[in-house]
Amino acid sequence: VQLVESGGGSVQPGGSLRLSCEASENIFDINAMAWFRQVSGAERELVAAIGGRDGSRYYEDSVKGRFFLSRDRAKNTLFLEMSSLKPDDSAMYYCAAWGDGLVVVTTTPPDYWGQGTQVTVSS
After folding, report:
1. How many angstroms separate the CA atoms of 89 and 83, rounded?
2. What pLDDT, in 10s, does the model give residues 23-71?
3. What's the distance, CA 118 to chain centroid?
4. DSSP sequence for 25-76
5. Rounded distance, CA 19 to CA 78, Å?
6. Could you give the C-alpha distances from 36 to 2, 74, 123, in angstroms and in order?
7. Closest-CA residue to 17 (of 72, 74, 63)
């Protein structure tokens, strides 16, 4: 599976951005997909994840109520809608996907990664 992210950029605190992750396969057939983020010197952290077939969603506590996952079947694209952005949300955001098999999104390492897109929240 190839993943290509887009949509990052610079925004002021309180602003919104929408990240896109276009997959090379039908995203509803992919076991699970997610967005991670990483700041320099820190570990990559899971932000949000979605089950491919059942659409079940997971959100990290700090983004609940502010970030939302959606999908476009026709475009094979996963979106991360981000609102009420804070400076602490600044990071490189990566799209990821898991192949078949048992997956626990909070502990199972993804099988596929995109190249990342930078989000900067600053006044």
Report:
1. 10
2. 999 999 999 999 999 999 999 999 999 998 889 999 999 999 999 999 9
3. 12
4. S-TTTSSEEEEEEE-TTS--EEEEEEETTT--EEE-GGGTTTEEEEEETTTT
5. 8
6. 16, 24, 24
7. 63
